[in-house]
Amino acid sequence: MKQFFQKHWLPLLSLIIFGLIGSKALLHQGFYTSHDGEHQLVRQYIFDRAVNNGHFPPRVDRQLMNGLGYPLFTFTYQFPFWIGEVLVKFGFSIPDSIKGVFVLTYLASGITMYLFAEERFGKLASFVAGFLYVWAPYRFLTMLVRAQLGEHVALMFIPLIFWSLNKINHTRAIIGCLSIAGLILSHSMVTQMAALPIGLFFVFRLLEEKKKLVLLKHALITAFLGVALSVFYLIPATVYRGNIVGLNRTFYAEHFVTLRQLIYSPWGYTFSVFGTENDGMSFQIGIAQWLAVTLAIIIILIAVILRRKPKNLLLIPISLFCSFTIAIFLMTAASSRVWEKGVSSFLIVDIPWRFLTVTTFSAAVLAAFTLKHLNSKLLKISLTLFLMGIAIYTNRNHLRVNKYIDIDPQFFTHYKGTSNSYDEYQPVGTSEALRKIENLPPVQITEGEGELTLVENLPQKLSVKIENQADVIVRLNTGYFPGWQLLVDNLPQDIKRVLSDNVPQIKLSSGNHTLNLWYEPTLVMKFANILSLVAVAAITRHPIKYLIKRYSSRRLL
User: Fold this and answer.
1) Are residues 150 and 283 in the same domain?
2) Who contacts 350 (Cβ-Cβ below 8 Å, separation ≥6)?
3) Domain end among 361, 379, 410
4) What is the pLDDT of residues 465-493, one digit of tens each?
5) CB 524 within 8 A of CB 235
6) What values do phi and psi take at 447, rounded to 5?
7) Which of 97, 186, 191, 405 has a CA that sits 20 to 30 A from residue 233's CA?
8) What's the rounded Cα separation, in Å, for the pair 377 and 375?
9) pLDDT digits (tens, 9 = 90+) for 163-188
10) Is residue 343 part of a domain?
11) What is the span of the domain harbouring residue 474?
12) How would you write 105-155 as a 3-class SS string?
């Protein structure tokens, strides 16, 4: 790897510089208004609280949803906040940590694209691929308008998965499975969409590979271990999906776009709305990207007609062009029947235009293919400068945020939302009346009189003492979700039997009492955690042995 960076330092440094230019708006003091920016800040705060309280991996937090609690990290992505947590522990504020994750993974995505493309298309072509991958309208939309952190981070891993399939060896398998896990833990919807180009790429790799069975084994082991690493998240999110309200399964119908919008649509900082006339954000793929794809298909057609290229050299670009075309189809209303009969039934993808992720990736690689197959060096340099110039010019107004704002630290401690626009992880049976009560206390006596003393009031634990002279009914205002446990006077209770409006209500006789409510991972969660740990052990066993052997041999010398 060191030799790689020594050999390719100039294009890599150039990608970093252009990446810093593209993300310079985030180097400004303060945070910024955006669609999901507030959500990302809250999630990092909640994640940090969970880690500080020993709740890892985090599952629930009692502060959210008006203090009723919310199983946020049972269902939402986690990996971006792992990165953010490292920055927090180094002393960065929550807003700066979120911006730092955006910038670091933005730069990394250009490098990972270069790493994949360089093996097939050479330095110059791969530099252009990396450049167009980061200088695409959808990248700026995701980072500076939507602040969709998970989707943004996921784009760093897609090129690495392709790179892991380029060749067959142990290192590629390890990087591949780590990348698959990173992709899943960054954004499950992007994972499902990325399966399209990854699957097509693998099929065409099988066609061009001589050692087909070896490649198949390599891919299956990589995929299996990658999924196994992430089952601590996947299994609970799947098993307990029936315990939450969930997304509207026909939401997709409101967010189809037109081909015209994909070619050009005005830049904006508001939202995607029903129909195509009043959208307040842009869905353009990018003029430079369209040009790159057009040139690539021309080269493919000429090569096929004139038989100038071996078929195996065209397999990969054809797979990417197919991915690009299918993604466009799935973003338009022409695919409504496909969504109705297939996509919405088998995939959890809420918005069709999220497939811009696929077009952004495919167009970048096809640009590299085009440059690789130009015979003239002058033509290559001219096209490179032309595509870069077009990308810079057409994105010149996309490099800024709507407005900078300061975040009051008290915002986090007083936050009572869910960090989801549609509260889709709300446990079934949650009382809407309790959700509407301002300053809802964590515990209250609903019948009778007594004195309450809060002993512990933590994200995953509540402990209270009650002194009452007569019978009382005490309500613990924490909504039930699988994993919550209840002790009354140190005696375990069947929490489901004392639920009313999905919160525990306990009748107590006169005297002194203690109530303890805490969250404990379910057997399903514990089993999933163990599976992921076994996968970690399987992946690290050989590399650790290799490092020990190498270190020991150096000591002997």
Assistant:
1) yes
2) 189, 247, 248, 251, 252, 255
3) 410
4) 999 999 999 999 999 999 999 999 999 99
5) yes
6) -140, 135
7) 97
8) 7
9) 999 999 988 999 999 999 999 999 99
10) yes
11) 432-519
12) HHHHHHHHHHHHHHHHHCHHHHHHHHHHHHCCHHHHHHHHHCCCHHHHHHC
